[in-house]
Amino acid sequence: MSEGVVYLVGAGPGDSKLITVKGLELLRNADVVVYDQLAGPDLLKEIKSGAELIDVGKKGGFHKAEQDSINQILVSKAKENKIVVRLKGGDPFMFGRGGEEAQELIDAGVKVQVVPGVTSAIAGPALAGIPVTHRDYASYVTFVTGHSKDGNAEAVDWESLAKTKGTLVIMMGVSNLRETMQKLVDFGMDSEIPVAVVHAASTPAQRSVLGNISTIADICEDNKITAPAVVVVGKVAALHDILEDLR
């Protein structure tokens, strides 16, 4: 009987064709697939007959399984000598809790490997015509979550981020977008800095809007832009209206 193993696989930003070749191969050979809400639903059609599917996704703050429960599922299935794929939207280590799961698995003596995925933090803006770096506008980019562990708002240093001259990409930041933009202004960021928001990147539902720090919250409300979405703050965001949709 073969040794159990868990593969932390990035499914990409939403389009099922954007998973890596290695990730797809592992998915097709898995005995158990533990998947998230943002993993492309078409990918589940690739799973072999007889494989066990476990939905642990979350949407709108509702968790089908808490993180401790997910960790235990991964450990127990691997210890049954199963090939387990933990399928995550985007990249497992980009705000995907992949690092936490890897730690738990290693502590439990379970073999674990990571298969990187295309993160929506870069792909989302790109597909909306926004390069997160550009020699004329931004030589660096900062990725930040709009939701911190246990709701700890102090975990994000908005005062320092407000001083950035590069691109700021905010993941999971739509629900508190107005408050976040106000924090950036309060800490000194120019309210005229361009801001773009890309919803459901790479999927047929993709939509994007452009404004600035002072207007983007109203624009998102008017256009009913909801999660999942990526927020891009910086001069590169204005390229959205020049390069447009690059899907």
Describe this structure in words.
The strands form three sheets. A five-stranded parallel β-sheet has the order 3-2-6-1-7, sandwiched between helices. It has a five-stranded mixed β-sheet with strand order 8-9-12-10-11, with helices on both faces. The chain has a two-stranded antiparallel sheet with strand order 4-5. The protein is an alpha/beta fold. It has helices at residues 21-29, 67-78, 98-107, 120-127, 158-161, 177-186, 216-222, 240-243, and strands spanning 5-10, 32-35, 52-55, 58-59, 62-63, 83-88, 111-115, 141-145, 167-171, 194-199, 207-212, 229-233. The protein has eight helices and twelve strands.
Radius of gyration: 19 Å
Q: Briefly note the structural class of the backbone.
A: alpha/beta
* Average pLDDT for all residues: 93
> What is the succession of H and E elements?
EHEEEEHEHEHEHEHEEHEH
Number of helices: 8
Principal-axis shape equals elongated
Q: Order the strands across the largest sheet as they lie in space.
A: 3-2-6-1-7
The strand count comes to 12
> Major beta sheet, specifics?
5 strands, parallel
Provide keyphrases for this structure:
5-stranded mixed β-sheet, 8 helices, 5-stranded parallel β-sheet, 26% helix, alpha/beta, 247 residues
